[in-house]
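#struct-help
A.M.: can someone run this one for me? Single chain, 495 residues.
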Amino acid sequence: MSNPIVQISKFSLKYGHKAVLTDLDWTISEGENWLLTGASGSGKTALLKAIAGLEKSTEDIVVVFDKASDTKPVCQYIAQWYQFKNVEGVANFYYQQRYNVQQVKDTLTVNAELAHYGKENNLSLPKVEPILNALGFAALRNAQLIELSSGEHKKLQLVKALWLKPQLLLLDQPYTGLDIQSRQNLNTLLDDITSEGVQIILVSNETEIPTCINRYGEIVDGQLTEHFAFSSKSLIVLEEKEIPEFLHEAPTSSSETLIKMVDVNISYGEKQVLKNVNWEIKAGEKWLLQGHNGSGKSTLLSLINGDHPQAYANDIHLFGNKRGSGESIWDIKQHIGLISPELHWYFDFNATVWQSIASGFFDSIGLYKEIGWHKRTQVDELIEYFGLTANKNDLLSALPLGKQRLVLLARTVIKNPELLVLDEPCQGLDAHQTLQFNTLIDGLCTTNRTLIYVSHSDDQLPKNLTHQLLLRKGEVVHNDIYKNRIYKEELESVI
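D.P.: on it. Structure tokens below:
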């Protein structure tokens, strides 16, 4: 019989007054690699943090390391998101800061971060090379941490964990923000390190998992149930909900052509991020924007959102006006409803759910103005639609990530904008929430509303897409009518 490396007995956990886990029992034996599933908010992240000793001190969880193993006798938790710090140890960056060339030197480079981590953990630098190459990260050695996209930050944390080879590796939604090829390469790397003695617990909503996974558990009603096979297919039944009345009709478009870019180039020193990009978006079109991690998607969207200072040096027309002709950032943002991983990172987590949604009227990171009865009613209607009524007065920080994302998605649509810019909107959502949100987007976009939707997952898309822009290393490689799976075909042709 295999020895247990993790023994959990009658473990309970509450958030506020809500019981998340109740008298949970779980034994993880040598050689077992687990996939842990469950609805958003069921307690998966809390359980991983508790095993890693990050949640609270408890005698209900015992982790036993094998001192004879070649792996590191530690338990390492890789969070869904990672908050990096500047050279002075401060993490309070602002949303547009990564695009400001005057401030990118405020953080360490990837090389410096890896050198520090390797020295701290007595690791050989040459051994990180294959991992960097497999995750497509080698070219970013000299990049500042603040310049990295959300997907690239996730890759950096995975690089460090795979390099360390801890005896127990806890991975919380590791595929979030990763492109298709990076996901496949990550699975191969996980198979490799588990063959060397590392054991993993993987929390994921994805259908493609590494072959090393040999145990399957699901958290339901605070308890863990073991399944004896993995099934990626489940019937999702949505409760039929009427879209709030104020969202039924899209606002009048400000121009026949909402976005027009002509030979746009963006550089940081010698690094060119966008190269001769031409893109035109007409009112009512629904665009899918795709490309590998670091292909320039976030930078391209920052030009549309008014967040990038280099927009003034390029030929860009937004909502009928040439960029730099006198309009302010707020003039631009009033046309747009935006969600992105970066916006989520930098949002004010001391705001309540109600305040967070209401802030969408003003495009602010938190609510700083009083709003009238009519708008308050609209906020309440959206809270009800998204199933957040019980959380209305909770702080955003008190919610699981999936519900945080639902709050910010509600914020995105609250002002009924003519253009929706949805950058990986379903990160952190479970399958039910993803279908619910994409159903809402399909309902909103039956009108003359315009959409830009960013996703690495071809199976998590709304149905009403009409056009597609595909980037590779900052250059446009496809700009045409939407064709399903062209992104995967493009990746395969490169590989």
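A.M.: thanks! Confidence is low (pLDDT under 50) at residues 86-98.
D.P.: also worth noting: Residues 245-494 form a domain with the Rossmann fold fold (CATH 3.40.50.300).
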